[in-house]
Amino acid sequence: MAENKPDLTDGKTELAVREIAGQEREQAVTSEREPALPESVLREPQRERDMVRDLQKEKTLGGD
């Protein structure tokens, strides 16, 4: 991608670098403001695995 573009003059390069850095800072600030997931949501995959395991135990013990 970059190899197809002509070299920018020093001033334009500096401006482009500053602009990209500013965008990255904005993204970092935005992600910091996003609320963290509740613990119950984070534990959901483990709960699902536990329920599947329990169902399999019931089938094995029940002789179905």
From TrEMBL:
Chain segments carrying region Disordered: 21-64
Top-rank taxon: Bacteria
Protein name: TraI
Source species of the chain: Escherichia coli
